[in-house]
Write a structure and sequence with these properties.
Strand order of the largest sheet: 1-2-3
Oligomer: single chain
Distance between the termini: 41 Å
Shape: globular
CATH topology: Arc Repressor Mutant, subunit A
Radius of gyration: 15 Å
CATH architecture: Orthogonal Bundle
Number of strands: 3
Strand content: 5-15%
Helix content: 25-40%
CATH superfamily: Winged helix-like DNA-binding domain superfamily/Winged helix DNA-binding domain
Largest sheet: 3 strands, mixed
Number of domains: 1
Length: 114
């Protein structure tokens, strides 16, 4: 039987970063069953596309997801990455309004910039 995943490795890396913004590439790779080189390439893709901001924190990196950006799907401008991550993380909007100062089109998730 063929093995497959509903989510791409890029989406799975985003989920790992959403769970732990200080996650190491080694841990991303081990958790997803991919090589460190692949994990590095995927994070570089996400950073280059503007979906993730990488910040140095001593000798390690911390990541911040830009949740208000739309998914990179051809022909559509919605939904935003933050909305999809909220659904996958079980934090879907329950009708509550976001705090003042936040983009109302973005569902606030810790470590995801709205």
């Amino acid at each position: 039987m063929t093995s497959w995943s509903f989510l791409t490795n890029h989406a799975r890396v985003l989920l790992r970063i959403a769970h732990d913004p200080g996650v190491r590439l080694r841990d991303i790779a081990a958790g997803l069953g991919i090589t460190e080189r692949s994990a590095h390439a995927i994070v570089a893709d996400l950073v280059a596309a503007g979906h993730v901001v990488k910040q140095k924190d001593g000798r390690r990196n911390r990541y911040q997801i830009e949740g208000s950006l739309p998914l990179p799907e051809p022909g559509t401008s919605e939904p935003a990455i933050g909305e999809v991550l909220a659904l996958l993380l079980g934090q879907a909007d329950s009708g509550a309004r976001p705090p003042l100062g936040h983009d109302e089109s973005c569902i606030p998730i810790p470590e995801i910039h709205c």
